[in-house]
Write a structure and sequence with these properties.
By secondary structure, the protein is mainly α. The chain is built from two helices and no strands. Helix 1 packs antiparallel against helix 2.
């Protein structure tokens, strides 16, 4: 994994794979809470889709063989 320059949701440096996974877990929880606050199902889908696209990009940045 290449973690140089990666930061948590709160702007702290990520130094270990464990910190990276913990940050992703926190982001998933935040996204889920935000999506479920929306009453419109299309807005929920938009939240989830946008998050997954960003999630994929972040994983591609830090993982060597994806």
């Amino acid at each position: 994994m290449r973690l140089d320059g990666e930061e948590t949701f709160f702007g702290e440096d990520i130094n270990t794979p464990e910190e990276f996974i913990e940050d992703l877990w926190q982001r998933v929880n935040n996204m889920y809470s935000s999506a479920m606050d929306e009453e419109d199902k299309m807005n929920q889908l938009a939240f989830i889709t946008t998050f997954l696209i960003a999630f994929k990009g972040r994983l591609n940045r830090v993982c060597e063989n994806i």
